[in-house]
Design goal:
alpha+beta; 4 helices; globular
Length: 139
Amino acid sequence: MHDAARPCLDAQDLERLLGELGTHPVGGVLAIPATDTLKRAQGGEGTRAGVAQTLDRSGLWRALTPQMFRYARLCAALDQAHAAGRFPSDEAQALEWLGEHPLLIEGAATNLKITTGADLVLAAAVLAARRSHALGGSS
């Protein structure tokens, strides 16, 4: 099931995810390669944190949704994580903690996560552009 926090899922991304993971023994996630320069904050969170380190973004990906996994293995991974008092940031992490290596399936950058009002504005623009394109307008 796709979560409502990402209303701009592209149908082609979903088809690629299903096609590439349909027979995979673990599963995987839609993701996009990190393109921004990534900074680790010094001393925690906040709007005025100092820079502790610039990270090498090569090999780093931003996880999107949906994610797709074998049901029994996912349930076991989540049960084990919770029993150990661990709470994964996504389902893939629970499987990683078991030593699994979910696949990264490249998705579209327009698969936006809605967490702020600004995200909602961007998502509305993406959806309007798709609607216009579908109706024969320019994109």
